[in-house]
Specification:
By secondary structure, the protein is mainly alpha-helical. The chain is built from ten helices and two strands. Strands 1-2 form a two-stranded antiparallel ribbon.
């Protein structure tokens, strides 16, 4: 392959056969099966979690959607779907831990947001998450991170509170158990289907 072709290649081939342009993603090249497959195989906490399997981004997304549902019982399906898909760009770019994202800079965040916008449009959501919904999802994301940190990633509660805040005592969060990738993929797809019906 010539060096010119390597420089110009900015797409990722998906198992569905789609070629997703990473610099200018089209909603037409996004499939939920590709997202579920990728997220189920991306490890949260760079794989530094307890258990026989990694705790995947797919599981994290389902946990965040559950927390959103508990924090806001009247949230409609579109809000829950945005919560489920909040980290969907990671099916292509992986899950960089927050300190590294900060070191990389704003261009990386812009890249993620451009991809998230295409994902939203593909599934009939607003291109940009509304401010109030984004705030709710961010709160749920921090709560999910607290439980992941204390149950799976070796944080003591005081340390987790320092980084993620204290979760409300009313939440019913079950014991987190990392799933095999195929199981996480199936659960994620099932949850997606229930939200888009």
């Amino acid at each position: 392959m010539s060096s010119k072709m390597q420089i110009n290649r900015a797409w990722q081939r998906m198992l569905s056969g789609r070629r997703l342009d990473l610099l200018d993603p089209s909603p037409l090249d996004i499939e939920i099966e590709d997202i579920a497959h990728g997220l189920a195989r991306v490890a949260r906490w760079n794989g530094q979690t307890k258990g026989a399997h990694a705790f995947s981004v797919a599981q994290h997304c389902m946990l965040v959607e559950r927390v959103v549902s508990e924090l806001s019982p009247r949230a409609d399906r579109s809000i829950k779907l945005m919560a489920l898909l909040h980290d969907a760009p990671e099916y292509v770019v992986g899950d960089l831990i927050s300190p590294f994202k900060a070191a990389v800079g704003l261009d990386y965040k812009d890249f993620e947001l451009r991809l998230l916008s295409a994902i939203h449009l593909r599934f009939g959501l607003p291109a940009k998450t509304p401010a109030e919904t984004a705030k709710l999802i961010k709160k749920a994301d921090h709560i999910a991170a607290y439980f992941e940190a204390t149950q799976l990633a070796g944080f003591v509660r005081e340390e987790a509170r320092k980084f993620f805040g204290t979760p409300p005592g009313i939440l019913r969060i079950p014991r987190l158990l990392p799933m095999a990738a195929a199981d996480a993929q199936t659960h994620f797809l099932n949850r997606f289907q229930r939200l888009v019906v």
